[in-house]
Amino acid sequence: MATTSSFNNIYAGGKIMLKAGFTGLLTLLLLIPAWFVMQLVQERQARQRAVTQSLTSRWATAQTVSGPYIVVPYQSNFNTQQYLMLLPQNLQVQASLSPEKKSESIYQVLLYRSHISMQGNFNFKLPASVNPAVVHWEQARLYLGISDLKGMEETPHITCKDSLVNLQADLPVKRSDSTGFSGPVTLDATQVGQQVSFAVEFALKGSGSLHVTPLAANSKLIMHSTWSRPGFDGNTLPVSSTVNNKGFNATWVFNEANMPFGTALTDVLPDKENISVGVSMIQQADEDQYAKTLRCIKYALLVIGLTFALFLLIELLQHKPFHPVQYLLVGFALVVFYTLLLSFSEYIDFDAAYLVAAMATIALISLYAQGHFKKWRTAAVFAGALSLLYGFLFVIIRLQDTALLAGSIGLFVILSVIMYFSRKISWYPNPVGLNPDQSLSETL
């Protein structure tokens, strides 16, 4: 008899291990449909990018403002025409950005309108290699670089020496990678070494970001907006910045000590990529529903595995086996959660979409468990456990820097709960899988 009882215990324990192994394998297999859902999310994300690019290309793309600067032709020692680039001695720029949202299909695209004003002065100094006698001051032109002219709502208003500059759209000399405006200015050799003041004012549309290239010996850039989520770009951070729910203010300051060029250059301007600074209009993390959904799917292994572990635990406590096909159906329900989340988040707020998808999934699985175990109390246990699991997942995807810490603590708590409720299970049952004093199943 003892041998038979021992054999039965080993056989029953082997069945438990076999069921546990099956649920583990099924968890891994369900990552395949989860991967297809991830591909669907990325496809929708690519569609959003295409719509955004289409709208911004018709409105205006990211803008970079360069200048102003004056270009004067001169004759070189080899009797060829070259160009002298005269940059301001002092420059102050103020830019005000007003965010706008435009709808295209089911997507919203973040755009902006800006008002930019510039003030400063030139202090004309010729390089030692340039003979003042061969400089054609009568052909001097003032240039203002604008990266995307579709964003110009009006021709810039520019005054130099208190005279209005008659501008026209023109490619700046030796700056074929940029577009902008230019106009003639009245200069002569007597103004070498003297200060010439200027003022610029214009409205500019754009999307994504606004950068300014401070082509001056000393410059100060002030940007402000009602947008509360700026990203500060460029090789130099603002010397001061304030960001709150009402918007942001940022100030950059440059001087002759940290600018790698002088105010008089021959032929080539400094590379704007190395000195441009500005802001990017960063979308709120909650608004990027595709990134949030992708983060959710990355936790599919955890959600499916813990849900199956819960079913296996209650199956042992209730002595009512759950068929492999039933595990498969529950697994599919867990995967469908992500398609529901993806679909709803394209039309409503991500938080609301998550709540709807989670409630639908929890209700489906809990009612299915009630139909199998025939106890509403057991269904309530499933509903409560899944609610905590999806709530935990929601907290994790909302966090950024502390996500790892919160996730580690959460997993430790979950493991502790599983170990606590499984501590009285006899993995070699006698005879039905529980110790004679096991009473926990009566409450489930």
From TrEMBL:
GO terms for cellular component: plasma membrane. Pfam families: CreD. The chain crosses the membrane at residues 20-41, 299-319, 325-345, 352-370, 376-396, 403-421. InterPro entries: Uncharacterised_IM_CreD (IPR010364). Keywords: Membrane, Transmembrane, Transmembrane helix. PANTHER family: INNER MEMBRANE PROTEIN CRED. This is Cell envelope integrity protein CreD. It comes from Deminuibacter soli.
